Write the structure tokens for this entry.
Amino acid sequence: MNIIKVSNLSKTFKVKLKDKGLKGSLKSIFKTKYKEVHAVKNISFEVEEGEMVAFIGPNGAGKSTTIKMLTGILYPDAGEINILGIDPRKDRKKLAYNIGTVFGQKEQLWTHLTPYDNFRFFGAIYDIPNDKIVTKIKEFTELFGLEEFINTPVRNLSLGQRIRCEIVASLIHEPKILFLDEPTIGLDPVVKQNIRSLIKKMNKELNTTVFLTSHDVSDIEKLCKRVIIINNGDIVLDDTMENLKYHYFNKKVIEAKLAADVNVAEIAGVDIEKQKGTNYKLSVDTTITSVAEVLKRLRLENLEDISISSIPLETIISDIYKRKN
Amino acid sequence: MKKYLYAFKFEVMTTLQYAFNFIGKMVSLFLMIFVFMNLWNFMYDDPSQAINGYTKFQMIWYVSISELIYFVTRGRQTCEEISKHIKSGNIAYTINKPYDYVVYTLFTLLGRSFVSSAFYTTFIMIIGSAFTGALPALTMVELLATVLVFALAVTISLLLVIAIGLFSFIFEDSSPMYWIYSKIWLICGTLFPIEFFPVWAQNILKFTPVYVITGPSRLIVNFTVEGFVETLIAQIIYLIFTVGLCELVYRKGMKKLNVNGG
């Protein structure tokens, strides 16, 4: 069942323009010029219940604008949004009861109070009865391992602990969809891993649909089975993670240390990405030349060391960003 | 309603963590009242003399209660907080929570004001008694009625400050508006009760928010049932008007809001 349906969604911002220097500042008092920025252009997509979707793109691509329109923060200029049968423009309050949001750079917790008090507060905000909220806090504390700091004021928590509490606060009313906008921004690798496990656990145990934006490729790779890439306000790719990797599977990276130099540039389908003496980093298009053929040309007896790997997802995504630009 | 009471309670809890901050503010409250008291000492040759219906004793208590409302409201700071919230676009993130922003903000501010009222009222009662030698004479019923109009005066005052802060949606910087409002409040309500103005000006001032906000100051020095009813009715009208104004500015403003970074 599709619980997010977006069709022909568009949003344009009017941005103030000012000429250079003092003259420009004075001129702008009397005549203000504006420029239209088409942040989101006629995009459409659907998300099924229980899916974990990565909605990614470079800075200024329109991903945050889209997520804000989906959560009712911004009004779209055109198009339709249907979240669990609710139009965010018409019934934001009803929508708020059914979705959870975490904006990695924005705090929603009361920093001077403890996570426990905060969860009680969020329980009241979402009209959860007192006895139910106490049970729920207990459940979430165990599920997400918050016992250690549940009674410590939020201002004294580490960033990782705070983000964990932010996520729990967004889940307290058991939303069907969780919108996560860069939830792991600024976190160290260990904490990032913890947060990812928490999101996975939540998806598995509560069947929460996750709509995630992140610049961290590991978040996307480890959490999502589907990826939507937006660039310059257009959706440039909407596919499964498996397909995305498969399409690039025919590209391999060979790092080789040779005993004697070989004219690698002559080999069709092979690009030299880096070279230092007889150390090479090659990218091989296996639809033109097989890895076996490349190894043959490099001569096995000439190889001092070798490693063969697939192209990292990060490179694949940057390549898509660049191509569509 | 439960959610707003929680907002009130949690703001009380937060404010109590910084109770020591009130000590510094009490010093400035003391200085303000001290300056006003000296001014009125200078104006009144004879303490039993009445100027425009106010004796020196009444005048000092009038000023003290007016200053108390001003300090409890913390208007400039509140206005700046809301203004900053709007300019940074952070206000947008409150929209996807199932509460009414204006009512939620009002209840958090009331929570803060509740704690500060307790501290400042005790302080004012002590210094007021020290300066005048006695507390205003009120019966228990009169005291309760005055407390009611005091609570309404603070609520209306907070709503006006919220409305001025929300005007940042339109003017980007609402601090000049607050400056004008606070000066009118100072001159036409705190420094001089409206009875000090010509009759035609009094008739105009009676329709301004200053009249309803300074209602408790008038009642504490000269309680009359007519005065109480008149103030209460004016406050109810202003309460409805200010809530409506805040909601209108908020709704209009949110529609035109562009959130930073998307």
Q: What stands out?
A: Chain B has twelve helices and no strands.
